[in-house]
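Incident review: delayed structure delivery

Summary: a single-chain prediction request sat in the queue longer than the usual turnaround. Root cause was a stuck worker, restarted by the on-call engineer. No data loss occurred. The affected request and its eventual output are reproduced below so the record is complete for anyone auditing the incident later.

Affected input:
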Amino acid sequence: MSDRTTGPAHPRIFVDKRSPQAFRAMVRASEAVKATAAEAGLDPTTVELVNLRVSQLNGCAYCLDLHTRKALEAGESAQRLGVLPAWRETDVFTPVERAALELAEATNDPTDTAAQTSAYAAAREVLTEDQISAAIWVAITIGAFNRVSVMSGHPVRRA
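Output delivered after worker restart:
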């Protein structure tokens, strides 16, 4: 992988490669968040749904590719992945998954206090406080990785 992608006018810097110490710290934080989610009892597929939904909202092709593969490896179905952008319009997601997705969306827009209030209310009905905290941390973490990949212009390679 090169250190730069070339666009017509403005080459991008792979900030993860340019500042590896900072990126390694993010990876360690992500590993701690994954462990926190597991300890809280969040299923790995729920974690991947949150990763995917936030990546959809942020338009991060690289993370969408990566976490789609991870979700499939964790046992997620193609049907549920296909309808994830419209998760509210289906009944294929469990109450726990729906609460985690609502928290993820609210976390992704820190200015929408009404969405945060609604997300917390829905989450408190089906999630423990540890699960609420873990879901929020998953959303925060993938959001940071989305920004690294989008700003770096990380390419998606054909499988």
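Verification: Strands lie at 4-5, 12-13.
Action items: add queue-age alerting; document worker restart procedure.
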